[in-house]
Amino acid sequence: MDLGLKGRKAIVCAASKGLGRGCAESLAREGVVITIVARTEGPLNETAEAIRRATGATVTAITADTTTDAGRAKILEACPEPDILVNNAGGPPPGDFRDWGREQWMAAADANMIAPILFIRAVVDGMIARRFGRIVNITSTSVKAPIPILGLSNGARAGLTGFIAGIARETVQHNVTINNLLPGPFDTDRLRGLFEATAKKTGKPVDVVRQERMDANPAKRFGTAAEFGDACAYLCSAQAGFITGQNMVLDGGAYPGTF
Ligand code: NAP
Description:
Elements: E1 9-12, H1 18-29, E2 33-38, H2 41-55, E3 59-63, H3 69-78, E4 84-87, H4 102-130, E5 133-138, H5 151-171, E6 176-183, H6 189-202, H7 206-216, H8 225-235, E7 247-250
Parallel strand pairs: 1-2, 1-4, 2-3, 4-5, 5-6, 6-7
Helix pairs in contact: 1-2, 1-8, 4-5, 6-7
The site of NADP nicotinamide-adenine-dinucleotide phosphate has 29 residues, from α1, β2 and α6.
């Protein structure tokens, strides 16, 4: 299926690796001109070059922190009129909520709630004027089924989800959709870091924690960044203009609810 995205422009945040990179690769394959973002220059440039080589797409790499005003300004200067915005950032650390004060909560809210909202504010009116916009926020299945050790993520992402539920119904009449993609377990550095934290807490070897987690998933495996990226590309497609305000779960069936 041709997703009708050739020549569109996209900002993909937090995209030097993992799920953000998967989204960038899938969009680039569709002929989208992409601006990818991460804080560390070396790996970001390597990813940009790898995507150029693999897809022939035009890729601009911007080293910036999405949680800062200066970082967001730098990204928007590189791509002032995006047709597509993929909001993403690193996930907050796991732990016990008794150990977290205002500083930790503000950092989580900045990365996983406030930065996406400020990005949307910066680009949505241009999308409305041009009558095309696709905004995808990478959140987590923790929005639907909270994960106890990820309290910072449960809280911050639920705030973003509530905000999106309201605004997504206002923009769709202008062919601007806003949706959330909710990853379950995907084989990325983030997941490996969480296994290490669980191993430390439980005393089990990391390999055992990893295998147990895989066995517990109905698919008996983890998802891949490529699978995630292709779902993102579909939500960004010309054909997906009637889908807005949705929370799409990609978790191999782990979330057990009927709806
Ligand atoms: P990852 O493999 O650790 O990759 C994170 C990417 O984000 C890197 O490119 C990192 O590069 C960049 N980044 C982090 N903070 C940033 C910031 N403030 N500004 C710009 N770039 C930033 O993580 P992932 O697994 O792809 O996860 C992506 C998101 O999905 C996270 O929020 C994670 O919590 C969530 N999630 C993941 C899973 C999973 O199974 N993987 C499940 C549920 C939710 P730099 O460090 O160089 O900036």
